[in-house]
Sequence to fold (167 residues):
Amino acid sequence: MERAGATTLRGQPFTLVGPELKPGDDAPEFTALDSSLKTVHLADTAGRSRIFSVVPSLDTPVCDAQTKRLNEAAAQLPGIDIYSVSMDLPFAQKRFCNSFALDNVKMLSDHREGSFGQAYGTLIKELRILSRAIFVVGPDDKVKYVEYVPEVGDFPNFDAALEAAKS
Fold:
């Protein structure tokens, strides 16, 4: 499934690959890598509420700020796991976290297969990077909150996502 013009980068429209998820949907299965190169699936994250913060690249100012903001929030949210998902290599993600002492956000690299991006509808076809989005998935693996940020350079609504994760 492709959604032409579903996201923009600096005003230029791009195609997103995958479904447009809605609250109440089952969270799709995915395969990604953590910073130790271990394969991670949805089931490996189960048992708690989760926020999946999707960013194009940690090497951009908005993605950097988004990840740092959620790392701070994670320290105040016991019982909620926060994952940052990008196409960055696991080595780059680990270096980023080490550089800024980020230890509350768990990194997932979608570089190898693009599985997360395709399953959650955030893969930008033309660029093979992920579009900015945020998902809250409950312990029951149901999607509780979804935001596909229309312009890749804009921030998601952090407060709405955090409130959905707490409820």
In short: The chain has one domain: 25-166.
